[in-house]
Amino acid sequence: MSWTPTQQAAIAIAPKVSGMLSIIGSCCIIYDIVCFQLRRQDGVPTVITSPQTPPQKTSCCSILSFCSNISCARINNSISKSTSKFTSILATSTSHHRIILGMSISDCIISCAHFFSSWPIPADADSEFSIYGNIGNTMTCSAQGFFIQLGIMVPLYNSLLVLYFVLTIRRGWTEADFQKYAGPIGHTLIWIFGLGTAVAGLFLNLYNNANLWCWIASYPQDCVQTFQPPVDESDYLFDAIDGSTKEPCDRGDNSFIYRFAFWYGPLWLMFPWVVLGMTLVYLHVLKQDKKMESYLIDYTEKVTDMHEKAKQMEAQHRRMSKHAEESRPDEDDDTSLPAEPSMTDLSTGDISERERMDSSQSHPNSTTVHDQAIQTCNELKRTARVRSNAVALQGIFYMLAFLASYTFSTVVRSMQLAEKQPHWSLFFMFALLKPLQGLMNGFVYFRPRFFPVPKNRQNISTPMSA
User: Fold this and answer.
1) Phi, psi at residue 396, to the nearest 5°?
2) Which domain holds residue 12?
3) Is 155 within 8 Å of 267 (Cβ atoms)?
4) Residue 219: helix, strand or coil by DSSP?
C-alpha cells in the first residue's frame, strides 16, 4: 500500500505537533507539583460555622429557627466528611501528586521521543510504506526506541492512579496507609518494568523501523522469526506465493512476541482495570450521594413537622390571648358612662403593645423560618450533588485521556494482528493522539482551578485545587 507525499508528510509531522504540546502540558504539571504542591502540608481543614446562639427570649419560632440551624450545621458536617476525602486528594495529597508527577515525567520522556517521529529512522530502512524525513541510522533508531519503550510507565501510572482513587475513596484508606504500602510498591514496580523492558530491548536489538518511528520491530520487515520456523529451508530464500525473499532476521528476532510482552499485553490489561476502577469509584460516590439526599429528605420532613407544630402553638397562643381579653370584667355598670382611661392604663397598654411589637420583630414568623430552612436544605443538596459529581468527573477525565491516547494504537495493532491493512486515517490518528496524553493530562490537572467546585455560600468552605 502506497501513500501520497502529502500523507507521508502528515504522518511524520503529526507526532511533532502533538509531542510538543504534550511536552508543554507535562512540564507545566511537573513545575506546579515540584514548586507548589509538594510544599503543602497534608490535609485541608474544613471550616464549618457553628450554629447560632439561641435568643434569650424563647418562642415557638425561635425554637424552630435554632433547631434548623443545628440541623443545618450537622448536615454541613456530614457533607464535609463525605467530600473531604476527595477535596484533600485534589488539594494536598502528596501520594496523588507523586503519581501525577511520575506519570508526567515518563510522559515527557516519551513525548520527546515521539517529537522526532521519523527523523531517527535509518535512511536506508526498508518499509512497506514510504517514509518522510528519515535521516537517521541504527544508533539513533535504537535510542528513540529505548525512550518510547520507557513510555510504558505512562499507562502503568494511570493504573496506579486508579488504584489510588479506589483505595482512598471506596475502601477508605488514609494517606498514610497508601504511602506506607501501595505507593512505594507501585512506584518501584513501574520503574523496574519500564527500565527493565527498555534495557532488554537494547540488548536484544529489538529497536528498528516501525513505520511511524523506531520501536520494537523486525529487520528486515519480512524476515522469518524464530517462533515461526519455515516449512523447509527453501522458504528462507523464496516465497512462491508472493514472490518475496524471506531471510532470518538480522535484528528484532521474535519482535512480535516482545511487542505483546513488553507493551500491548500490559496495556490491554490496563484498559479493563482503568474502566472498572473508575466505575467502582463512581458507583461508590453515587451511593454516598443518595445517602446524603435521603438524609436531607428526612431533615426536610422534620422541619416541616416543626413548622406545623409552631403554627399550632401560635394559633393556640392567639386564641388564649383573645379569650383573656374578652373575659376581662367591666369595672363600671352598663348604665354608667365609660370612665376615662387613667395614665397607668395608657402606659400599661403602650408597654404591652410595644412588647408585642418588639417580640414580633425579634422572633421571625414561623413561615419565614421554615422557608429559609427548606431553602438551605435545597442548597446543601445541590452542593453535595455538585461535589460528588466532581469526584467522578476528575477521575473520568483522566480515564478518557488514557483511552484517547491508546485506543487508535490498539485498533491499528489489532488489525495488523488479524492480517488486515489499516486505513491511512487510522495511522494518522494513531500518530496524532498517542503522543498527546501529556496535554490532556494537563487539562485535567488544572481543570479544577478554572472550574472549581461551588462552595456553600454560608456554611461550607473547602479549598479546591488540582
Assistant:
1) -65, -35
2) 5-48+59-134+146-200+270-318+361-456
3) yes
4) strand
Grid cell of 237 as nine digits: 530464500
Tell me the CA end-to-end span of the chain in Å, nearest whole number. 46
In a domain, 464, yes or no: no
What's the number of domains the chain is made of?
Answer: 1
Q: Is residue 28 part of a domain?
A: yes
Domain of 159, CATH number, reads 1.20.1070
Enclosing H/E stretch for 62: helix 60-91
Question: How remote is the C-alpha of 144 from its chain's centroid?
Answer: 32
C-beta of residue 155 within 8 angstroms of C-beta of residue 388: no
Q: Is residue 213 part of a domain?
A: no
- The three cell numbers of residue 286 are 453515587
3-state helix, strand, coil in the chain (%, to 5): 70, 5, 25
Burial class, 161, CB count within 10 angstroms (exposed 0-12 / middle 13-18 / buried 19+)? buried
* Tens of pLDDT, residues 241-262: 444 556 788 898 898 899 999 9
Report residue 210: phi and psi, to 5°. Answer: -115, 30
Quote the cell numbers at residue 146.
529505548
Burial-class residue 300 by CB neighbours within 10 Å (0-12, 13-18, 19+).
middle
Residue 31 belongs to a domain: yes
Distance, CA of 305 to CA of 313 (rounded, Å): 12
Answer yes or no: are the C-beta atoms of 377 and 296 closer than 8 Å. Answer: yes
> Could you give the CA distance from residue 292 to residue 289 in angstroms, rounded to a whole number?
5
Distance CA 32, CA 345 (A): 77
C-alpha to C-alpha distance for 69 and 54, rounded to whole angstroms: 10
Helix (H) or strand (E) holding 410: helix 366-417
**Helical (H) or strand (E) element with 214:** strand 214-216
The mean predicted confidence, pLDDT, of the chain is: 75
For residue 153, which of 105, 114, 214 has the smallest C-alpha distance?
Answer: 105
Q: What is the pTM assigned to this prediction?
A: 0.70
pLDDT in tens, 325-335: 777 655 445 55
Distance CA 193, CA 190 (A): 5
Which residue bears the cell 510507565?
A: 153
In this model, does residue 45 exceed pLDDT 50?
no
